[in-house]
Amino acid sequence: MWSIRKSGHARRRQAGRAISDRAVKIVLEFGRCFWAGRGCRAFFIGRRDAREDAALVEFQNIAVIVAADGTLVTVEHCERPPRHWKRAGSSAPASRSGMRTGKSISNARAAECASGVRWCTGGR
Q1: Whole-angstrom Cα distance, residue 105 to residue 88?
Q2: What pLDDT score was predicted for residue 2?
Q3: Which terminus of the chain, N or C, has fewer Cβ atoms within 10 Å?
Q4: Per-residue pLDDT tens over the stretch 44-75
């Protein structure tokens, strides 16, 4: 069974924005990975991703923000990644060199994002 630690804020936002646990899991697994600031990672499925894989259409324009310790910070609907998010492949400060693995998303997925590999596309 898959589970993720959620902050109280994330639980309230997820319920208020009608984003299911399944949607969060899919975005974490298949979404593009960005630096979101303060050591957090953002995972996002946009129009381009949905065009490439029709199964992702249901989950397009959903963003999931995960803290460095693997806790889900918040979820939101957005049409495009905010400008201040930087692709995970771009350079980041040494203090933000990556997520601690093994907390809430798979070790392989976290390591892939921490290393800045490609777009962190997971299973595609």
Answers
A1: 16
A2: 63
A3: N
A4: 999 988 999 889 999 999 999 999 999 999 99
The label of the residue with tokens 């994002």 reads: 113
Tell me the per-residue pLDDT of 75-101, one tens digit each, with 9 for 90 and over. Answer: 999 999 888 888 886 444 333 334 433
The answer to whether 72 touches 64, Cβ cutoff 8 Å, is yes
Reduced to 3 states, what is the DSSP secondary structure of residue 73?
strand
Our measurement of the distance from residue 63's CA atom to the centroid of its chain's CA atoms, rounded to an integer in Å, reads 6
Give the predicted TM-score (pTM) of the model. 0.70
* CA pair distance 68, 120, nearest whole angstrom: 16
Helix (H) or strand (E) holding 14, with range, is helix 8-16
The amino acid sitting at 85 is W
Query: What is the three-class DSSP state of 8?
Result: helix
Tell me 100's DSSP state.
Answer: P
Residue of 70, 55, 67, 54 lying closest to 102 (CA atoms): 70
